[in-house]
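Could you please consider the sequence and fold appended to this message?
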Amino acid sequence: MHRLAVQTLLMLSLALPLRAEGEQAGDFEYYLLALSWSPNWCALEGEARRSDQCAPGRRFGWVLHGLWPQGERGYPSYCRTRAREPSRGQTGAMADIMGTGGSAWYQWKKHGRCSGLEPDAYFGQARRAFEAVAKPEVFRELDRDVRLPARVVEEAFLEANPGLRRDEVTVTCKQGYIQEVRLCLTKDLEPRRCGNDVLRDCNLGDARFEAID
């Protein structure tokens, strides 16, 4: 009985993504580019935080959540690095695609340090990766909140980005909302297959998707 319990725990641990903290910067396999639909993020979290990203008139659609160094299984975070910390000006300059400078600072602290790059280079990589992805216009044209299958969002990105394969992109949900579109990229920012722990598509058939105010 004891042996069976140990085997069961081992199998469960292997099924879960690995995550650690304080690893050496630069030790990763690929990037995960995470794009959030701002109206959904505001409905879930941002309005409660009184984030400037959700202020009237901002009209954000897809925003850059982050460019995350990733392993084939699991990911590093809060890495040890000799890179200097970014200035307020450097993080503030990312607000046009990340919503706020505060979001850019947090992403640097948790993920950017793990890239092994200096802040200018890391934020430059993040901006290039974000701008290289075509965002489907159909979502900006929505004039009302809708419910839709999560697979529709993935299909829209595949159609807008010819050459992108299904195993290079995934869609996540949170509390019934479409949360993010995540794309897997090489260190040179070329699409590549996602690790098995990342390829977990949301399968909701009636996910909430809010229109831009």
